[in-house]
């Protein structure tokens, strides 16, 4: 029969998108079991047109599970993913708990699908949404020109911080709506928002906030280090030079990045266009004369990585500038996890003959 899938963390922002993806993608699963914290157990959620009751996470909940997708906080994954793996499930984990573990592959099917086969711990990691929002396009260009350096700035959506990020931005929008004086004196937005900052360190509405994640050494944010470390691992370029500045913007869903990419060889912009046009999972949408470039408002809810504003650097014949957008809850999280799980499901199908 078809493999049994468990969705762990079915009730969160990513879990919700996951259930809708599982309902619309080609069905490769037998039973789909929904697992969440004790608090959410008993809830009934719709997947593939049927209501399924959420069960609380326990060791027994993984009985008979072939593939388990985890979308839960790092510490919950760190505890439960090895338990699910010990019970024989292949775990596809979207937390940060295992991404840099040398015995856990970090997989983006369009870039390094074959890495998924080598999983000594029975765990495969799904990258962070910011890395994922650009890496499919960068993988395609790397293939042609050999990437040496990335300098990126991100424009990250509120939903990257989960449902509380979404709620905070909508609440803040309500507080500023209709006030045509705001945004003219220092601190006026902050005063209107009061303590409704949600998970962000400054007002997000009518603002941009140069911060995502937690503080690490020498002033870097955890998010910026993730972009560096994960890009290196996915592209198998341990010496790749990466500088990232991660910024939160008042967008509900879809991360954007401005990328300066330097290669080992001189680039040809027409050829680079062709590479991107031919790359699976990438859409080149780049005609500024007609006002055509990707924006989060147009990209949200879609699967591909959208690329626009492609230019050859004026002062470096080996570098390209580009702007990319990707839905952080789809390709940035649920979709990539589903794609990895489908790669594993194919192994089951092949083994079953
Ligand atoms: C964010 N990448 O956007 C992060 C966490 N998923 O906040």
How would you describe what is shown here?
- This protein has 353 residues and is α/β, with parallel strands linked by helices.
- Helices cover 33% and strands 22% of the residues.
- It is built from ten helices and 14 strands.
- Strand 6, helix 2 and strand 7 form a beta-alpha-beta unit.
- Helix 1 (13-24) crosses helix 10 and helix 4 runs parallel beside helix 7 (222-235).
- The chain is globular.
- The mean pLDDT is 97.
Helix run count:
10
- How much is the average pLDDT? 97
Task: Quote the beta fraction.
Answer: 15-25%
Shape: globular
Number of strands: 14
Question: What ions, cofactors and ligands are bound?
Answer: 3-amino-D-alanine
Major sheet details: 6 strands, parallel
Uncertain segments are none
The helix/strand order is EHEEEEEHEHEHEHHHEEHEHEEH
- Our Rg estimate from Cα atoms comes to 21 Å
Transmembrane segments: 5-24
Subunit structure: Homodimer.
Binding site for NADP(+): 11-14, 39-40, 159-160, 328
Active site: 129 (acyl-thioester intermediate), 255 (proton acceptor)
Helices and strands, with pairings:
Layout: E1 5-8, H1 13-24, E2 32-36, E3 44-47, E4 50-53, E5 55-56, E6 67-70, H2 74-86, E7 90-93, H3 109-112, E8 123-125, H4 129-145, E9 147-156, H5 163-176, H6 188-193, H7 222-235, E10 241-248, E11 255-263, H8 269-278, E12 282-284, H9 296-299, E13 305-312, E14 319-326, H10 330-352
Parallel strand pairs: 1-2, 1-6, 2-5, 6-7, 7-8, 9-10, 12-13
Antiparallel strand pairs: 3-4, 9-11, 11-14, 13-14
Helix pairs in contact: 1-10, 4-7, 4-10
3-amino-D-alanine binds next to α4.
Family: Belongs to the aspartate-semialdehyde dehydrogenase family.
InterPro entries: Asp_semialdehyde_DH, Asp_semialdehyde_DH_beta, NAD(P)-bd_dom_sf, Semialdehyde_DH_NAD-bd, Semialdhyde_DH_dimer_dom
Binding site for NADP(+): 11-14, 39-40, 159-160, 328
């Amino acid at each position: 029969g078809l493999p049994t899938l468990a969705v762990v963390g079915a009730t969160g922002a990513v879990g919700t998108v996951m259930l809708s993806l599982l309902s619309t993608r080609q069905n490769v699963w037998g039973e789909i079991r929904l697992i969440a914290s004790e608090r959410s157990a008993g809830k009934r959620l719709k997947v593939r047109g049927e209501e399924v009751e959420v069960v609380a996470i326990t060791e027994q909940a993984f009985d008979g599970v072939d593939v388990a997708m985890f979308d839960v906080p790092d510490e919950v994954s760190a505890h439960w993913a090895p338990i699910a793996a010990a019970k024989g499930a292949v775990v596809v984990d979207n937390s940060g708990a295992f991404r840099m573990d040398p015995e856990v592959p970090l997989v983006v099917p369009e870039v390094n699908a074959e890495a998924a086969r080598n999983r000594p711990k029975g765990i495969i990691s799904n990258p962070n949404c910011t890395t994922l929002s650009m890496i499919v396009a960068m993988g395609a260009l790397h293939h042609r020109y050999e990437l040496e350096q990335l300098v990126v700035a991100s424009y990250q959506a509120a939903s990257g911080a989960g449902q509380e990020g979404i709620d905070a931005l909508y609440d803040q929008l309500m507080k500023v709506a209709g006030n045509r004086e705001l945004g003219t004196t220092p601190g006026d937005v902050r005063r209107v928002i009061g303590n409704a900052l949600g998970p962000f360190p400054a007002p997000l509405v009518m603002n941009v906030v140069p911060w995502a994640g937690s503080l690490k050494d020498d002033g870097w944010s955890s998010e910026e280090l993730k972009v560096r470390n994960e890009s290196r691992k996915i592209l198998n370029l341990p010496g790749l030079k990466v500088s990232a500045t991660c910024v939160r913007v008042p967008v509900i869903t879809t991360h954007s990045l401005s990328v300066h990419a330097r290669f080992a060889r001189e680039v040809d912009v027409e050829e680079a266009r062709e590479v991107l046009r031919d790359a699976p999972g990438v859409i080149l949408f780049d005609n500024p004369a007609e006002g055509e470039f990707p924006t989060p408002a147009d990209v949200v809810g879609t699967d591909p990585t959208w690329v626009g504003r492609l230019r050859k650097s004026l002062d470096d014949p080996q570098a390209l500038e580009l702007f990319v957008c990707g839905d952080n809850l789809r390709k940035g999280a649920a979709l990539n996890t589903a794609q990895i799980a489908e790669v594993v499901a194919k192994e089951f199908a092949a083994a079953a003959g």
